[in-house]
Amino acid sequence: MHHDLRQCYWFDSLTNGAGARPSLQQDIDVDIAIVGAGYTGLWTAYHLKQLKPELSIVILEAEHVGFGASGRNGGWLMGEIAGLDSYLAARNEDLRTLAYREVHSIPARAGEVLQREGIDCDFAHGGAIYAAARYPGQLAMARAHLAALRAAGHSEADYRWLDADELRQLARVAGGRGAIFTPHVAAVQPAKLVTGLASVVERHGVRIHEGSRVIASSAGELHTATSRVRAPVVISALEGYGAGADSATKSGRPFILPFQSGMVISEPLSAAIWDEIGLAGRQVLSDYSRLATYVQRTQDDRLVFGARGGYRFGGKPISSFSGDDPAFETRRRLARSFFPVLEQAAFTHAWGGTLGIARRFAPHVVYDRARGEGTAGGYTGEGVGASFLFGLTLAELVLDQDSVRTCLPWVFRGNSADVLRRWEPEPLRWLGFKAAWGVYGWEESVLSRGSAGRWHKRLAGMAGAAVARLLSP
Question: Which of 206, 281, 395, 452 has its CA 20 to 30 A from that of 131?
Answer without folding.
Answer: 452
